[in-house]
């Protein structure tokens, strides 16, 4: 109940009638004052003695005279009878502390406004102390009950006590917190309409005899003369001791406030201001921009002058008129309108609500927010004030572009602008939809705050938001860094299934960032997720999200830095077996995620160990079965994992599980799949199969050669094949170019593969070039056998035989299709260019192919062709390669090439330094060979100790 309600301190109102009601009221006022004014008794101990009575009286007089405090303070005098003088004096000084807080503001207000302001403050203070809601309807209800209770209990009171209670009622009745907006509007219009339309001239008595201006604070001398306080005090301070008018002696202590005249002056001023305010509206709505600006400036002066005048402006319905001006073309008009709206909204809940409820008001302010800096700052200032209203801030977030602009301003170099924007966003964050929109715009602080410290339902809502909206990687990373993981793990560990589901989905969203995934693994999130994955009582949907989240965590472990502590999801064989076993026991979505988990783990820093353990548990057997499924998504991921296990697997493992049926399935996948990653993986599996005649025959029977040709050429003329498809297709082709199987070699040549392989040497990736060179090398190894001796043609005219031009290397008739000749295929120059590849494997394969044309008796002619193809210099360069294998092969090639005098003369000098370095730093066998080459070059004697 209110402080004057039906029950006070356990004493009912009816009981109070039997006691001294006014005494109870005064005691309660005392308690309220003591509870709300922070000042200790010790603070005034030094002031109490020996003149405590004089000090008390002086303090009472000062409060009453200096601040215009109402005579309610006279009640305190009677309290001397109820308590010690020390306690009363302490209270008075504490009351003084409260008044000092308002001194600057209140002392500049007119008496009427000062009384109203004090009444409002006192009403709020007391209502708060006794637990009454600060709402107009509640305050008014309790105040009316108090008045009725006071009237019914007046019998038995003495006259002084009755007058004091009437003074209290009169004072608190001036608080406009007890008046509805409609009542204030009606009262204002009634008064304003009674004033006329023209301002009145001031009365002569309003002027100060010294300054000639209308007085603000008139004071009266003992002789009855009236002056402006500041003017007469300055007169006396300048050394004058006589009254300016009467010439009688005058002291400062003789001056007394003339409250009656001051009130009359204030009433005259208020009357003229009220009339002026009403007359400005027509000018503001005029078409003359200069007149509009002048009128707005005048209105702004009234706004900043006092709260009462701001209320009059509001009641004159200036708010919608001013808001309309925000759409004006003139920048200065818009800026003035923003300043007026800010003044009307500041410290006024009613002003804020009136602005916010005008149609499109917030939209127009937001539009100003996007304009030039000065106007933008004013709009931001207004939005900050409006955002402090619960009604307006609910509207603000829904205005298009508002939150976006605020988030942008939050990153401003201007600290004031950035702070204002940040505070507005904080105020708007009370609405979940605004928090969601902020998160979408990369501002996640409010979401994080609600997630970490909100109620359970609020935390669930924010976690659900994380799982549903698209967030940038930047904000995801920021959320985890600032503590989002802990509340999500708490939700994940909750017994409530819905909470688990929401937490899993949120973790799934955040785990897409590599750093987040790695942190989650370190914090043990994967262990909790594995427990949920193996929990068969959970719904399939939740387990699908759990599996997808684990997949993200597994993928994050692939990007660990070498200097960091390495983390992995699974290490033991039992754990790997347990997880892989779910591939055969769960739905397709979970199957797909588990297969991808193992794909990621196989490519992690610990991938070699994972691949070995998967082969140990016969994972390939399961994958071969999954490759036969109609579910294309599961099949695609099974093929990709199969490919990873085949890379470094041994031939026996593959031969154990890969039969003609499996090969047929792989070829069919290559032929029909529209998933290029799946196609590349299937081709990769084939490329890693053991290279023997029976496997090649299985591939031929399945039609592999045709699909490989399609993949190398591109499946249609408008789409170029992906690098990995071409790489693995070229690798798979190696099965058909083995010199032990000339029939398949012939099919390859007749299908046009050789020309295609030569073109890949100049356009493919390093792996493609390596595989293409390997195929050409294998084909070239059969060229000598297939090349036919050149026939002689007899010229009948003279019976002289003329030789038919044959291959300069093979000394017979060669062609691309019949003998697979590298010379005829123009492959030497492209192969020579591959020697400069940074990838040692590609260089080695190219060198192997090149060396096939200088074997045996082909050395002399082959060397000349290599020189013409610019291949000798790259071979010499390989002597300095970091690859020992390449060094050794290049050394052996040069040992044969430099047997030719022409080659020694042309290239010998450039080879000397790398050869000398090998003799100094190379392996013993290579030192000997290098010395032998140097002997060919006449750098070392034939009998050198290096041999």
Automatic annotation (TrEMBL):
GO terms for biological process: protein ubiquitination. Keywords: Repeat, Transferase. It catalyses: S-ubiquitinyl-[E2 ubiquitin-conjugating enzyme]-L-cysteine + [acceptor protein]-L-lysine = [E2 ubiquitin-conjugating enzyme]-L-cysteine + N(6)-ubiquitinyl-[acceptor protein]-L-lysine. Pfam families: Arm, U-box. Pathway: Protein modification; protein ubiquitination. GO terms for molecular function: ubiquitin protein ligase activity. InterPro entries: ARM-like, ARM-type_fold, Armadillo, RING-Ubox_PUB, U-box_domain_protein, Ubox_domain, Znf_RING/FYVE/PHD. Its EC number is 2.3.2.27. Gene3D superfamilies: Leucine-rich Repeat Variant (1.25.10.10), Zinc/RING finger domain, C3HC4 (zinc finger) (3.30.40.10). CDD domains: RING-Ubox_PUB. ARM repeats lie at residues 483-525. Signal peptide: none annotated. Residues 201-275 form the U-box domain. PANTHER family: RING-TYPE E3 UBIQUITIN TRANSFERASE, U-BOX DOMAIN-CONTAINING PROTEIN 44-LIKE. This is RING-type E3 ubiquitin transferase.
């Amino acid at each position: 109940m209110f402080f004057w309600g039906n029950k006070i301190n356990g004493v009912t109102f009816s009981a109070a009638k039997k006691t001294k009601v006014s005494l109870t009221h005064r005691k309660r006022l005392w308690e309220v004052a003591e509870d709300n004014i922070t000042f200790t008794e010790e603070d005034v101990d030094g002031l109490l003695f020996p003149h405590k009575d004089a000090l008390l009286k002086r303090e009472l007089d000062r409060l009453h005279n200096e601040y215009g405090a109402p005579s309610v303070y006279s009640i305190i005098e009677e309290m001397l009878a109820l308590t010690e003088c020390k306690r009363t004096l302490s209270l008075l000084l504490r009351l003084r502390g409260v008044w000092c807080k308002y001194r600057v503001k209140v002392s500049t207000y007119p008496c009427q406004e000062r009384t109203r302001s004090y009444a409002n403050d006192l009403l709020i203070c007391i209502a708060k102390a006794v637990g009454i809601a600060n709402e107009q309807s509640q305050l008014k209800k309790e105040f009316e009950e108090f008045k009725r209770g006071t009237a019914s209990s007046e019998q038995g009171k003495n006259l002084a006590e009755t007058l004091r209670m009437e003074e209290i009622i009169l004072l608190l009745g001036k608080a406009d917190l007890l008046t509805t907006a409609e009542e204030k509007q009606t009262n204002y219009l009634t008064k304003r309409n009674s004033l006329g339309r023209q301002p009145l001239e001031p009365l002569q008595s309003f002027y100060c005899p010294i300054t000639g201006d209308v007085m603000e604070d008139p004071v009266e001398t003992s002789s009855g003369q009236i002056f402006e306080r500041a003017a007469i005090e300055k007169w006396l301070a300048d050394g004058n001791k006589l009254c300016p008018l009467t010439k009688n002696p005058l002291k400062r202590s003789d001056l007394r406030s003339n409250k009656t005249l001051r009130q009359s002056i204030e009433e005259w001023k208020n009357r003229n201001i009220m009339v002026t305010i009403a007359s400005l509206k027509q000018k503001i709505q005029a078409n003359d921009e200069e007149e509009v600006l002048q009128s707005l400036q005048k209105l702004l002066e009234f706004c900043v002058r006092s709260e009462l005048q701001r209320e009059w402006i509001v009641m004159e319905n200036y708010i919608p008129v001013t808001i309309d001006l925000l759409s004006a073309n003139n920048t200065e008009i818009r800026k003035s309108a923003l300043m007026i709206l800010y003044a009307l909204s500041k410290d006024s809940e009613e002003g804020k609500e009136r602005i916010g409820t005008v149609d499109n008001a917030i939209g127009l302010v937001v539009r100003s927010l996007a304009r030039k800096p000065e106007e933008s700052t004013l709009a931001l200032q207004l939005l900050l004030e409006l955002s402090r209203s619960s009604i307006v801030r609910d509207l603000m977030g829904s205005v298009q572009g508002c939150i976006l602009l605020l988030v942008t301003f939050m990153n401003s170099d201007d600290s004031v602008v950035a702070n204002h924007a940040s505070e507005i966003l904080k105020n708007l964050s009370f609405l979940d939809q605004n928090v969601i929109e902020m998160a979408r715009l990369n501002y996640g602080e409010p979401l994080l705050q609600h997630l970490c410290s909100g109620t359970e339902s609020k935390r669930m809502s924010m976690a659900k938001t994380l799982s549903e909206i698209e967030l940038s990687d930047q904000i995801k990373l920021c959320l985890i860094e600032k503590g989002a993981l802990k509340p999500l793990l708490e939700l994940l560990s909750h017994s409530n299934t819905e909470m688990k589901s929401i937490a899993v989905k949120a973790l799934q969203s955040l785990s897409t960032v590599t750093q987040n995934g790695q942190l989650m693994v370190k914090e043990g999130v994967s262990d909790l997720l594995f427990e949920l994955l193996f929990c068969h009582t959970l719904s399939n949907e939740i387990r699908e999200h759990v599996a997808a989240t684990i997949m993200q965590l597994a993928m994050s472990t692939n990007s660990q830095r070498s200097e960091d502590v390495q983390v992995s999801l699974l290490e033991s064989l039992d754990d790997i077996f347990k997880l892989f076993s779910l591939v055969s026991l769960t739905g397709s979505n979970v199957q797909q995620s588990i297969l991808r988990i193992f794909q990621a783990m196989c490519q992690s820093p610990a991938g070699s160990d994972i691949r070995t353990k998967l082969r140990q548990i016969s994972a390939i057997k399961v994958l071969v079965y999954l490759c036969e499924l109609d579910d294309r998504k599961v099949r695609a991921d099974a093929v990709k994992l199969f490919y990873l296990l085949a890379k470094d697997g041994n031939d026996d493992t593959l031969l154990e599980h890969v039969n003609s049926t499996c090969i047929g399935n792989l070829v069919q996948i290559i032929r029909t799949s529209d998933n290029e990653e799946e196609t590349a993986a299937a081709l990769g599996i084939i490329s890693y199969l053991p290279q023997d005649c029976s496997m090649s025959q299985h591939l031929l029977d399945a039609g592999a050669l045709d699909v490989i040709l399609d993949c190398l050429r591109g499946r249609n003329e408008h789409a170029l094949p992906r690098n990995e498809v071409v790489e693995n297709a070229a690798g798979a082709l190696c099965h058909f170019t083995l010199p032990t199987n000339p029939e398949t070699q012939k099919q390859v040549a007749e299908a046009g593969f050789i020309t295609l392989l030569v073109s890949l040497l100049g356009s493919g990736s390093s792996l493609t070039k390596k595989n293409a060179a390997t195929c050409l090398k294998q084909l070239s190894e059969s060229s000598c056998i297939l090349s036919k001796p050149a026939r002689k043609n007899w010229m009948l005219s003279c019976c002289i035989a003329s030789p038919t031009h044959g291959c300069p290397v093979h000394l017979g008739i060669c062609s691309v299709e019949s003998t697979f000749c590298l010379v005829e295929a123009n492959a030497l120059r492209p192969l020579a260019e591959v020697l400069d590849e940074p990838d040692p494997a590609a260089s080695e394969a190219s060198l192997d192919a090149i060396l096939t044309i200088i074997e045996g008796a082909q050395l002399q002619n082959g060397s000349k062709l290599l020189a013409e193809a610019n291949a000798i210099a790259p071979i010499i360069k390989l002597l300095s390669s970091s690859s020992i294998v390449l060094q050794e092969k290049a050394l052996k090639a040069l040992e044969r090439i430099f047997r030719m005098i022409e080659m020694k003369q042309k290239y010998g000098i450039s080879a000397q330094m790398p050869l000398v370095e090998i003799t100094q730093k190379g392996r013993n066998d290579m030192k000997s060979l290098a010395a032998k080459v140097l002997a060919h070059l006449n750098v070392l004697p034939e009998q050198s100790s290096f041999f």
